[in-house]
Amino acid sequence: MKILIVLCAVLAIALIIAVIKIVLLRRGFDELTDNITDQVKGETQVPVTLTTTDPHARKTAETLNRELKNLQNERNSYLDGNRKVSEAVTAISHDIRTPLTAINSYLDLMKDETDEELREQYLERIKSRTLSLSELADELFKYSTSTDPSGHPSADTDTRSEPVDICRILEECMLSFYAAFKKKGIEPEIDLPDNPVYVMCDRKGANRIFENIISNAIKYADDGLTVKLDNEGCAIFSNPAPELTPVSAAKLFDRYYTVHEGQASTGLGFSIAKELITRNGGTIEADLKEGILSVKVHFVK
User: Fold this and answer.
1) Whole-model pTM?
2) Which of 67, 94, 152, 281 is least crowded, fewest Cβ atoms below 10 Å from its Cβ?
3) In this predicted structure, what is the pLDDT of residue 128?
4) Are strands 234-240 and 292-298 parallel, antiparallel or unpaired?
């Protein structure tokens, strides 16, 4: 009889403990549910904490914290991406609107203009603005192809590295800008090695990198462009940039960043150059000292 009483007492105690544990677990999972709901809604970023000491429940909470952290990072990336797209659309819209407005104005002037000389001038200005739009479209196309989201470069941006004489490529690229230099009144100082400088790079990509950097210098530099290349495959382009600041210089490689709002550029040139040199294993950086902007491109030997 005593044994039965003791057994009943033990069972009662065990039942009470089980009930308490179930109540605590239920409270813990209610807390877990509320916290997950707040996390998903973005109302809090505080990690999930449980009052229960049950190891299984705590392991569940740890796993959820890890996954919720990943979810939060993805949400932040998504919001940041939306912000950048919005900024890009604003910048591109402004770049397109400016030449279109000018073209419409010149067309209106031509309607009532009888002076053939003035009409020719208006036509030349319309042609210039049309070319600006064409360059804008080309720049956007180059950027879209150089950053193919599938991760597979198109035929135009094939980045299969091969030994190339970067000295020869830079020399030919500088020569191709001869007319543009002359028109802007720029006499570049060029310091290239007498011997070939072989690096591992995609030939088309290297040429585009140089083109984007040089065309940017022509747009913003009033005079003085120095181009140097050493035997280690490091090219440095330096030009006066009095209106740049260290902060703006650090943003030159940001997508769609422009030094002056409304300039005939989307700011894609440097961004494209960075994408291409990175694909080829090299680096690019900008430095501003005493009003001189230096863009350094280092290829892999």
Assistant:
1) 0.54
2) 152
3) 78
4) antiparallel
Q: Which domains does the chain have, with CATH numbers?
A: 2-75 (no CATH), 162-298 (3.30.565.10)
Note the pLDDT tens digit of each residue in 196-234: 999 998 888 898 899 889 888 887 776 789 999 999 999
Phi-psi label, residue 262: left if phi above 0, alpha if psi -120 to 50, beta otherwise: left
- For the stretch 106-125, pLDDT in tens is 888 888 888 888 888 888 88
Counting Cα atoms < 13 Å in the Cβ hemisphere of 93 gives: 6
pLDDT of residue 167: 96
Q: In the sheet where 234-240 sits, what is the strand order?
A: 189-191, 226-229, 234-240, 292-298, 283-289
Q: Which residues contact 32 (CB under 8 A, 6 or more apart)?
A: 48, 50, 57, 60, 61, 64
> Which two tokens mark 177?
């800008």
CA dist 172 and 248 (Å) reads 30
Summarised one tens digit per residue, pLDDT across range 95-104 is 677 678 778 8
